[in-house]
Design goal:
With 321 residues, the protein is an alpha/beta fold. The protein is 43% helix and 19% strand. The protein is built from eleven helices and ten strands. The model has no long low-confidence stretch (mean pLDDT 91).
């Protein structure tokens, strides 16, 4: 047998082995790492998706919350997990922010992951404790300028979409606020309701129920247009502020070198789950829009955002605290 024949045979055997793996996968429970604590927006979306994704793939999916460092702790754990399809990562758009903010991460957002699909797209929302004497963005800007440096705002962590939104807001309005990073949406929302911090930029799912209850005031969403799940909440631009657009996304990734047939099988499962009316309705109730993408589309989006956030972080002079 010639060398070329041996190489060809080896490739055919590898392809056959991957196809067999995809056909058999999964034969045991799958771990879904959520790099934020329970109760936050990422956790909420993960549990809604997981409820239908588990029966779709025929095995339990166990959610493992690994919060810390703006999502970097759990993401690093996922990056170094075996690439066998039994560890997946359900994360949000800080995945494309952190690499430009923290130059010494223990993973590479492009090299160490294979994108599967988006799960949902959602705006950030700027909410305030009811005691803060402002009712819209124009009033907030005036209040901040009258009280420079005296107002704190919270986010789910350094480098989170909420942090980026807050710093862009400061940059474009010429105001001063102090960023208070939390380790997830749950704790940040709780302290904003309690008055420990007066302002919060957070994903809409984490705050929407408390806005409806009147425990938080929604001043604006950070999307380019109003979201159907909260149609009464204006954008920052139409509520007296500058054009600050920071949409969040939630998506599913796996460790790099996970067999392509397994990734394809996961992508197909996600397509079915995100098309289910009950999943759409539950995500919609949380302020999120169910969004499936091909693996190629998701990969291109990640690469584009890595470049975009590098520019924004540099212009806003955002650095780790």
């Amino acid at each position: 047998m010639s060398a070329l024949s041996r190489i060809t045979l080896s490739l055919l055997c590898a392809i056959a082995a991957q196809a067999a793996l995809a056909q058999d996968w999964p034969t045991k429970p799958v771990k879904m790492i959520v790099p934020y604590p329970p109760g936050g927006g990422t956790d909420v979306v993960a549990r809604i998706v997981n409820e239908k994704l588990s029966p779709e793939i025929g095995q339990p999916i166990v959610i493992d919350n690994k919060g810390g460092a703006g999502g970097s702790v759990g993401t690093a754990i996922a990056a170094h997990a075996p690439a066998d399809g039994y560890t997946v990562l359900l994360t949000l758009s800080s995945h494309t922010i952190n690499p430009k903010l923290f130059p010494k991460l223990d993973y590479d957002a492009e090299r160490d992951f294979a994108p599967v699909s988006l799960a949902a797209v959602i705006p950030q929302v700027l909410v305030a404790n009811p005691s803060l004497p402002v009712n819209n963005v124009a009033e907030l800007i005036a209040y901040l300028k009258a009280n420079p440096g005296k107002v704190n705002y919270a986010s789910v962590g350094i480098g989170s979409p909420g942090h980026i939104a807050g710093e862009l807001f400061k940059l474009k309005t010429g105001t001063q606020m102090t960023h208070i990073p939390y380790k997830g949406g749950g704790p940040a929302v709780t302290d904003t309701i309690g008055g420990q911090v007066p302002l919060l930029f957070v994903s809409l799912p984490a705050a929407l129920q408390f806005v409806k209850q009147g425990r938080l005031k929604a001043l604006a969403v950070t999307s380019s247009k109003r979201t159907p799940s909260a149609p009464d909440v204006p954008t920052i631009a139409e509520n007296g502020g500058p054009d600050v657009v920071v949409d969040s996304w939630y998506g599913l990734l796996v460790p790099a070198k996970t067999p392509a047939p397994v990734v394809a099988k996961l992508n197909t499962a996600m397509a079915k789950v995100l098309a289910m009316p009950e999943v759409k309705e539950k995500l919609f109730a949380q302020g999120a829009e169910a969004t499936w993408t091909s693996t190629a589309t998701f990969d291109a989006m990640i690469r584009d955002e890595l470049k975009k956030w590098e520019y924004v972080i540099r212009e806003a002079k955002i650095t780790p605290e």
